[in-house]
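Case study 2.
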Amino acid sequence: MTKNTSSEETKSSNSEPNTLQRFKNEAGPVGYIGAIIGVAILLGTSLYFYLDIQKQKKNATAQNEIFQAQYYYEKDSIDAGLLGDGRNLGFIDIIDIYSGTEVANLAHFYAGASYLKKREYQKAVDYLQKFSTSEEIVMARAEKLLGDAYMELGNFTDASKNYMKAAKTVNDQFFSPGYLMKAALAFERASDLTAAIDAIDQVINKYEDSAEYNDARKHKARLEALAGN
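Prediction:
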């Protein structure tokens, strides 16, 4: 008699839906899928904020590390800035250790500028190409340095492109005219006199109050003579 009662209880228990099944039945297919999506979004958001906090902490630590390297750069102690001094990290180590942070991005700029000073032009290009920022003046400076490195490598086409990017990025009378004059020289070296004259014309027409204005007029006359105009 007891055996039959136990068997019936087990059968009854197995026939009752579990918690998940009850939720499926009550919520329906749409509600169930919506709940799954909601949980996924919640988990994804939590993970995003956790990773963002970790990245901020990593960036703060990297900021403390880069100060000494920046000091060496400003003092023209280029190797110490690049490779560190045995106690403090250099730009190269900061890039490796703190990859993905804003400070590592900035270290690419300093590393590229440092290699340019060391006349290791291809390395300068490699690091400067990986740098980006929304700060227009700094970004224009990076494009200008890239142009300088390409000029030294004899790649006048890419040099001119980067000088023009620099001029367009910052677009003011203090920096753009100088970048445009460099672009004109690069175009001339690349035997593109038309583009060289166009770059000079931008200085003359847009930046009359700039320090480069008078030189631009002289260079334009020279270029037009070369072009047979």
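DSSP finds eleven helices and no strands in the chain.
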